[in-house]
Amino acid sequence: MRLLELVDLTVSFPTVDGVVRAVDHVHLSIDDVERMGLIGETGCGKTVLGMSIIRLLHPSARVGGRILYRGRDLLEISARDMRRLRGKEIALIPQNPTTSLNPVLRVGDQIAEVIQLHHGMSKTEAWRLAVNMLGEMRIPDPERRARQYPHELSGGMRERVLITMALACNPTFIIADEPTKGLDSKTKSQILRLMRTVTAGRSMLMITHDLGVARSICDRIAVMYAGELLEWGPSEEIMDDPLHPYTRGLINSLPSHGLEAIPGTSPSLINLPSGCRFHPRCRLATKTCKNIHPDMIDLGNGRAVRCILCT
After folding, report:
1. 3-class SS of residue 207
2. What is the pTM of this model?
3. Which of 93, 94, 74 minimizes the C-alpha distance to 84?
4. How many angstroms separate the CA atoms of 120 and 113, rounded?
5. Separation in Å, CA 223 to CA 22, 38, 124, 152, 241
6. Could you tell me how many helices (H) and strands (E) the chain has, helices first?
7. CB 23 within 8 A of CB 57
8. For every one of its 311 residues, what pLDDT tens digit does the chain have, with 9 covering 90 and above?
9. Cα(69)–Cα(173) distance, rounded to whole angstroms?
10. Spatial CB neighbours of 268, under 8 Å, sequence gap ≥ 6
11. Short-list 264, 234, 220, CA closest to 246
12. Contact 5/29 with Cβ under 8 angstroms?
């Protein structure tokens, strides 16, 4: 059953230099108990897409299209109803623990505050549950750690605290924004194992630039570039048989595939190129690619691609 559906979603921001088209006519769906990976280079619009789902964008953002959660358009509901959904049914694991956690509050109090807000527990009950959840997140000596401040914890522990806060109200759908960014390889592996465990039986949108992370956790992967989706499909098929030249470029840039960098840089979201947005960097680009903007082609069997070379 479909849990979330983005229908022709657009997000733009007016600036003195022009309009930033951060998300441009995106169609994407996530089923119940499905983990979707959203991958792409920094600045392609991944985080903006995620924040638009829970309506945490800057007030200047212009959002169009529909965001259907269980058939209900989240762009149409009141701010009060959205606050009730946010945290309780739809939870966010934000990108940076250092800036996302309040530096002057103990981590246990920050988790307990979420529990009190949505479950109406007493402060003592919420604190006890917060400590228990930290223990379930495999944080040693959770009672002592709960009384500490964010700066007293390691990067891996701060990430576990963010995961605990996201899970505090047992949400149905989780948006995880770069949960392993900035972690060393050992800590990253630990967080990935934890994420696989805690997201079992839930739906998730994992936003990441790390293809290895997406492959290890996600059922499907969608590839984003310059504000739009270029390809999606089952994780194994995307990684083993990429169709779009950009996806192939991302995979070839991995250490295990030769560290071959994609030439050039991502285009400005204010001044997008004509035709295919990837054509200035694509070794296979033709004259047609420079002039015609391709539509997403549904190939069947759960795969789709935006490239005239795949027709």
Report:
1. strand
2. 0.94
3. 74
4. 10
5. 15, 6, 45, 37, 13
6. 12, 12
7. no
8. 899 999 999 999 999 999 999 999 999 999 999 999 999 999 999 999 999 999 999 999 999 999 999 999 999 999 999 998 998 899 999 988 888 999 999 999 999 998 988 887 889 999 999 999 999 998 999 999 999 999 999 999 999 999 999 998 889 999 999 998 888 889 889 999 999 998 999 999 999 988 888 999 999 999 999 999 999 999 999 999 999 999 999 999 888 877 888 999 999 999 999 999 999 999 999 999 999 999 999 998 899 999 998 87
9. 10
10. none
11. 264
12. yes
Instruction: Strands of 16-144 (E only): list them.
Output: 18-31, 35-39, 62-69, 72-73, 90-93
- CA dist 217 and 194 (Å) reads 10
Both tokens of 184, joined, read 């060393």
Query: Which residue matches tokens 């169009």?
Result: 64
- Find tokens 């694509």 and name the residue: 282
Contact (CB, 8 A) for 196 and 188: no
Look at the block and give the residue holding tokens 């527990």: 121
